[in-house]
Amino acid sequence: MSLTSSDFRKAMGCFATGVTVISVDQGGEVHGMTANAFTSVSLDPMLVLVCVDYRARTHAHLHARKRFGVNVLRSDQQAISEYYARSSEAHQHAEDAGAHFDRTAQGTPVLRGALAYLECRLQRAEKAGDHTIFIAEVEEVVVREGEPLLYFRGQYRGMEKVKS
Ligand SMILES: Cc1cc2nc3c(=O)[nH]c(=O)nc-3n(C[C@H](O)[C@H](O)[C@H](O)COP(=O)(O)O)c2cc1C
User: Fold this and answer.
1) CB-CB contact of 112 with 102 (8 Å)
2) Ligand 1 centroid to 37 CA: how many Å?
3) In this predicted model, what pLDDT tens digit does every residue of 57-107 receive, in sequence order?
4) Where are the domains of the chain?
Protein backbone atom coordinates (compact mmCIF):
# COMPACT_ATOMS: atom_id res chain seq x y z
CA MET A 1 0.00 0.00 0.00
CA SER A 2 1.54 3.33 -0.99
CA LEU A 3 1.34 6.38 1.19
CA THR A 4 -0.93 9.14 -0.14
CA SER A 5 -0.93 12.86 0.64
CA SER A 6 -4.33 12.34 2.28
CA ASP A 7 -2.78 9.77 4.68
CA PHE A 8 -0.01 12.24 5.43
CA ARG A 9 -2.49 15.09 6.07
CA LYS A 10 -4.57 12.84 8.34
CA ALA A 11 -1.54 11.84 10.40
CA MET A 12 -0.33 15.44 10.70
CA GLY A 13 -3.87 16.52 11.62
CA CYS A 14 -3.54 14.42 14.80
CA PHE A 15 -0.81 16.76 15.93
CA ALA A 16 -2.88 19.51 17.60
CA THR A 17 -1.46 22.98 17.20
CA GLY A 18 -2.23 26.56 17.96
CA VAL A 19 -3.03 28.90 15.08
CA THR A 20 -1.04 31.96 14.03
CA VAL A 21 -1.39 34.74 11.53
CA ILE A 22 1.87 35.76 9.88
CA SER A 23 1.69 39.52 9.27
CA VAL A 24 3.99 41.38 6.92
CA ASP A 25 4.10 44.90 5.61
CA GLN A 26 3.54 45.12 1.91
CA GLY A 27 3.96 48.64 0.59
CA GLY A 28 2.25 50.18 3.61
CA GLU A 29 -0.59 47.62 3.61
CA VAL A 30 -0.82 44.59 5.88
CA HIS A 31 -0.62 41.15 4.33
CA GLY A 32 -1.65 38.26 6.57
CA MET A 33 -1.56 34.49 6.26
CA THR A 34 -2.92 31.84 8.60
CA ALA A 35 -0.20 29.36 9.56
CA ASN A 36 0.19 26.51 12.00
CA ALA A 37 3.56 25.19 10.71
CA PHE A 38 5.25 27.37 13.29
CA THR A 39 7.66 26.31 16.02
CA SER A 40 10.48 27.53 18.18
CA VAL A 41 13.98 26.51 17.02
CA SER A 42 16.60 27.88 19.42
CA LEU A 43 16.76 29.76 22.72
CA ASP A 44 20.19 31.31 22.24
CA PRO A 45 19.82 33.00 19.88
CA MET A 46 16.03 33.10 20.00
CA LEU A 47 14.92 31.60 16.71
CA VAL A 48 11.58 30.43 15.35
CA LEU A 49 10.55 28.91 12.04
CA VAL A 50 7.50 29.02 9.86
CA CYS A 51 6.97 26.85 6.76
CA VAL A 52 5.30 28.64 3.86
CA ASP A 53 4.04 27.17 0.59
CA TYR A 54 6.00 28.66 -2.31
CA ARG A 55 2.66 29.39 -4.07
CA ALA A 56 1.40 31.58 -1.20
CA ARG A 57 1.64 35.32 -1.79
CA THR A 58 3.19 35.57 1.68
CA HIS A 59 6.21 33.64 0.40
CA ALA A 60 7.37 36.52 -1.82
CA HIS A 61 6.45 39.14 0.79
CA LEU A 62 8.63 37.48 3.46
CA HIS A 63 11.57 37.30 1.08
CA ALA A 64 11.11 40.95 0.14
CA ARG A 65 10.40 42.47 3.55
CA LYS A 66 12.49 40.20 5.82
CA ARG A 67 10.53 41.29 8.90
CA PHE A 68 7.22 39.88 10.04
CA GLY A 69 4.96 39.30 12.99
CA VAL A 70 3.76 35.92 14.25
CA ASN A 71 0.43 36.48 15.99
CA VAL A 72 -0.83 33.63 18.18
CA LEU A 73 -4.62 33.61 17.93
CA ARG A 74 -6.99 33.69 20.87
CA SER A 75 -9.94 31.31 21.15
CA ASP A 76 -12.38 33.99 19.88
CA GLN A 77 -10.34 34.79 16.76
CA GLN A 78 -11.42 31.92 14.48
CA ALA A 79 -12.95 34.39 11.98
CA ILE A 80 -9.54 36.02 11.62
CA SER A 81 -7.93 32.63 10.97
CA GLU A 82 -10.55 31.82 8.31
CA TYR A 83 -10.13 35.22 6.70
CA TYR A 84 -6.35 34.93 6.34
CA ALA A 85 -6.59 31.35 5.06
CA ARG A 86 -8.45 32.52 1.90
CA SER A 87 -6.06 32.79 -1.03
CA SER A 88 -8.49 34.94 -3.04
CA GLU A 89 -8.74 37.55 -0.32
CA ALA A 90 -7.43 41.03 -1.15
CA HIS A 91 -7.55 41.81 2.58
CA GLN A 92 -9.53 45.02 2.37
CA HIS A 93 -12.23 43.49 4.59
CA ALA A 94 -9.92 42.49 7.43
CA GLU A 95 -11.79 44.69 9.92
CA ASP A 96 -15.06 42.85 9.19
CA ALA A 97 -13.30 39.67 10.38
CA GLY A 98 -12.21 41.53 13.54
CA ALA A 99 -8.58 42.05 12.49
CA HIS A 100 -6.99 45.36 13.46
CA PHE A 101 -3.25 45.87 13.30
CA ASP A 102 -0.85 48.04 15.21
CA ARG A 103 2.72 48.83 14.11
CA THR A 104 5.83 48.14 16.15
CA ALA A 105 8.69 50.65 16.32
CA GLN A 106 10.20 48.77 13.34
CA GLY A 107 6.96 49.15 11.38
CA THR A 108 5.99 45.48 11.58
CA PRO A 109 2.22 44.97 11.65
CA VAL A 110 0.99 43.04 14.70
CA LEU A 111 -2.54 41.88 15.42
CA ARG A 112 -4.40 43.75 18.14
CA GLY A 113 -5.74 41.41 20.83
CA ALA A 114 -3.73 38.34 19.81
CA LEU A 115 -2.79 36.00 22.67
CA ALA A 116 0.85 36.78 21.91
CA TYR A 117 2.90 38.23 19.14
CA LEU A 118 6.53 37.75 18.19
CA GLU A 119 8.29 40.31 16.03
CA CYS A 120 10.73 38.46 13.78
CA ARG A 121 13.66 39.31 11.51
CA LEU A 122 14.38 36.81 8.77
CA GLN A 123 17.71 35.05 9.18
CA ARG A 124 17.60 32.40 6.48
CA ALA A 125 15.22 30.66 4.13
CA GLU A 126 15.63 26.98 3.22
CA LYS A 127 13.68 25.38 0.39
CA ALA A 128 12.04 22.13 1.48
CA GLY A 129 9.81 20.43 -1.09
CA ASP A 130 6.90 22.69 -1.99
CA HIS A 131 7.45 24.86 1.09
CA THR A 132 10.22 27.15 2.33
CA ILE A 133 11.37 27.10 5.94
CA PHE A 134 11.74 30.72 7.05
CA ILE A 135 14.01 30.87 10.10
CA ALA A 136 13.91 34.17 11.96
CA GLU A 137 15.33 35.84 15.02
CA VAL A 138 12.78 37.05 17.56
CA GLU A 139 13.33 40.70 18.42
CA GLU A 140 10.30 41.50 20.56
CA VAL A 141 7.37 39.66 22.13
CA VAL A 142 4.13 40.64 23.79
CA VAL A 143 2.13 38.08 25.77
CA ARG A 144 -1.47 38.57 26.96
CA GLU A 145 -3.97 36.72 29.12
CA GLY A 146 -6.49 34.39 27.48
CA GLU A 147 -7.07 31.00 25.90
CA PRO A 148 -5.65 29.83 22.55
CA LEU A 149 -7.44 28.88 19.35
CA LEU A 150 -6.49 25.28 18.52
CA TYR A 151 -6.50 23.24 15.31
CA PHE A 152 -6.95 19.45 15.32
CA ARG A 153 -7.99 17.04 12.55
CA GLY A 154 -8.89 19.91 10.24
CA GLN A 155 -11.15 21.65 12.76
CA TYR A 156 -10.90 24.55 15.15
CA ARG A 157 -11.12 23.69 18.83
CA GLY A 158 -10.97 25.28 22.22
CA MET A 159 -9.04 24.10 25.26
CA GLU A 160 -10.39 21.60 27.70
CA LYS A 161 -8.62 20.98 30.98
CA VAL A 162 -7.19 17.47 31.37
CA LYS A 163 -7.85 15.82 34.75
CA SER A 164 -4.66 15.63 36.80
C1 LIG B 1 -5.33 26.26 10.26
C2 LIG B 1 -4.54 26.56 9.00
C3 LIG B 1 -3.17 26.50 9.04
C4 LIG B 1 -2.39 26.78 7.90
N5 LIG B 1 -1.04 26.71 7.99
C6 LIG B 1 -0.27 27.00 6.90
C7 LIG B 1 1.14 26.99 7.00
O8 LIG B 1 1.72 26.73 8.06
N9 LIG B 1 1.87 27.28 5.89
C10 LIG B 1 1.26 27.59 4.69
O11 LIG B 1 1.98 27.85 3.72
N12 LIG B 1 -0.09 27.64 4.57
C13 LIG B 1 -0.86 27.37 5.66
N14 LIG B 1 -2.23 27.43 5.57
C15 LIG B 1 -2.84 27.83 4.29
C16 LIG B 1 -2.76 29.34 4.04
O17 LIG B 1 -3.30 30.07 5.13
C18 LIG B 1 -3.51 29.70 2.75
O19 LIG B 1 -2.99 28.97 1.67
C20 LIG B 1 -3.50 31.18 2.44
O21 LIG B 1 -4.53 31.44 1.52
C22 LIG B 1 -2.21 31.69 1.82
O23 LIG B 1 -2.37 33.10 1.70
P24 LIG B 1 -1.47 34.01 0.76
O25 LIG B 1 -1.50 33.42 -0.64
O26 LIG B 1 -2.15 35.36 0.84
O27 LIG B 1 -0.10 34.05 1.32
C28 LIG B 1 -3.03 27.14 6.69
C29 LIG B 1 -4.43 27.22 6.65
C30 LIG B 1 -5.18 26.93 7.80
C31 LIG B 1 -6.69 27.02 7.74
Assistant:
1) yes
2) 9
3) 999 999 999 999 999 999 999 999 999 999 877 788 999 999 999 999 999
4) 16-153
Does residue 157 line the site of ligand 1, with CB under 6 A?
A: no
| Ligand 1 mean position, distance from CA 129 (Å) | 16
Torsion 68-108-61-72 (CA) sign: positive
Residue 3 Cα to ligand 1 middle (Å): 23
Helix (H, G, I), strand (E, B) or coil at 5: helix
- Over residues 103-112, the pLDDT tens digits come to 999 999 999 9
Q: Residue 84 C-alpha to ligand 1 middle, in angstroms?
A: 7
- Please, are residues 124 and 135 in contact by the beta-carbon 8 Å criterion? yes
Nearest CA to ligand 1 atom 7: 35
Q: Residue 53 CA: which ligand 1 atom is closest?
A: 11
Mean per-residue pLDDT over the chain, rounded: 96
Per the CB < 8 A criterion, the answer to whether 104 and 138 are in contact is no
The superfamily (CATH) of domain 16-153 is: Electron Transport, Fmn-binding Protein; Chain A (2.30.110.10)
Q: Is the pTM of this model over 0.90?
A: yes
